[in-house]
Write a structure and sequence with these properties.
This protein is of the alpha+beta class and 717 residues long. Helices cover 43% and strands 21% of the residues. Strands 14-18-19-17-16-15 form a six-stranded mixed β-sheet.
Amino acid sequence: MDVSQYLGVFLDESEEHIQTLNDQIMVLEQEPENEDAINEIFRAAHSLKGMAGTMGYKRLQHLTHDTEDVFSAVRSGNMKVSSHLIDILFQALDAIQEYVDTIRDTQDEGTNDNEAIIAELNKALAEGTGAAPAAAPAAPAAPAAAPAAAAPAAAPAVDANAPAYKRIKLEEAQRDVMKDAIVAGKHVFGVTVKIEESCMLKAARAFLVFKAMEDLGDVVVSDPSSQDIEDEKFEFEFSYFIITGEELDKILNDAKAVSEIEDANGEAFDEKMIEDAFNYKEGGEAPAPAAEAAPAPAAPAPAPAAPAPAPAAKPAAPAPAAAKGKAAAKKPVVSHTVRVDTEKLDTLMNLVSELIIAKNSLVASASKAGENAASEMNEHVEYLESVTTNLHESVMKVRMVPLEGAIQKFPRMIRDLEKKLGKKMNLTITGEDTELDRTVVDQIGDPLMHLLRNSADHGLETPEVRAQRGKPETGTIFLNAYQEGNNVTIEVGDDGNGVDVEAVRAKIIERGFAPADQAAQMTDKEVIGALFDPGFSMAKQVTDLSGRGVGLDVVKSNIEQLGGDVEVKTKLGEGSTFVIRLPLTLAIIQALMVLVGGEQYAIALGNIQTIEDVPVGDIRLVENREVIQLRGTVIPIIRLSEILGVDPEKENPENLVIVIVKKGDSLAGLVVDELMGQQEIVIKSLGKYIKPNKLISGATILGDGEVALILDSNALM
């Protein structure tokens, strides 16, 4: 069966599981005994393995399976967490990420088997548990011999026609857990589920059943093993033991509720029956399901890891993707899905119904004639305007996602840089719940990563230098996000050395970016601005972190493409802060419509400071540039008619209409012919067939059907 339709869901959920593993392994590095972190890691690894198996990515499944074995051993207490183990796990995680990235680009996992990492994982497992991994499954055979002597009477009690769940061989730890549950007043049920023979995705159906069971209790063990189920190494039956507070009918009905499940049957187990299951040995009886399930007791040794099938529910998540339908299978560069709160969808649905009512009212009014028809029509139009405004706000909220999605990978990155650079550093993040348009969040990750790497590599000093300067040996890197009006501000910085302006000035001259006399005339702000020029770098040598001059220029260009701007605040010896300002949304904005040379243009309202009517006589020339003085501030002016290559409507006006726009701390005045008023506009891309000027950020369609270009005031400045 073709599972490519589920690729989008697979990629989204894989990224979530990988991020969970990153976060929790970092927690585990600081708190090796943290059981919550260990359990979360095991669940995520198991889910990732199951998803890979269901999608047919065998190499990814193999690597995640071996990684899960290590987590399973840690979870069961058979091995301890060490710094070396953490390093190996992070290497495995990077390899898993590489598989997912390759799948995202090509829909194939590639040919890299990552044998070296798998060997390291198995070596760590063997050293940590004191035995080779392969030997672990055989170990239970020896202790089983003793109780077996007392159990011969129990084993024959299971005849060839008994339900399959009575043929599940329990390990000692599983038996003890189930007995303790009964003492605590819980139920233990043995259940066998039969899948319809026409089913094409047996593993997916099995995992959906386990997902349903996860909501009802804890699955202790399954037959076949979770690995065999993932590999579809079973016929159409599987069995399991579940500890639950629910009744048997509920357990069976929820299992049957999964599509393509033909039947489910089971019974309650008491302590004696559990003991019989522990003592059970396969004799001559070997029904088909049991024969297929024989490897189950030989599952990786940490038998307590039996709850594995329960978390495995998530691997089946691709199956429900049929409902979502359009998970793109064509080289998705970024994820195109947004998880939406149902309350937001309810609001959206209500507004759409209001929109239909408004439309019907307009149709009814249009068919009427008489004195009141015009006033009724105006009322309906006002109502329609109110509904569409609310609808716009709701759609914007649906598109808004927390910045957390773009920055949650950074703590792991800083941890790796700390080891690579030999510096002590600590990353603090605030405002990760600040919401931005999904498009912005998808594209802001790389610029932020460059800035953080820049702080780690160039900003922070070595522990020795920091100690000499009276600073704590551990440097601080920070990322703060907060909403400011219609914009979101993100500050990235450090308490390191700061920018040495004179050193940058010398580098400008050395690299030939400006002659010595011109560089000497540059202000500190202009010198710092050179850091954003393509090819400019302060690094003395090229490393895998810096030196090629492709960091800050990428930051600037990417942020400006999003309609934002970036500025630098720095003090030598105390640190630097990069301040990024971004629009909340890229789809619909409030804009000021202006007339230049008889054509309408739009300027984003968020960039506008004030609008001034300035007499021509107030214009002065400074260094051959036109400026005005406004409330004590000298502001350069830009004549849009000259920039756009059109003739102004008035040749010699007495007053100029000037729109004062802001970019960071800088101001500029845009000279326009006439103001047309404020309007809510929908931004449309100019497409691939038109190569737009950098001054034009897009276009919009006006109410009369005409097209107006949107001016990028940041590019103008």
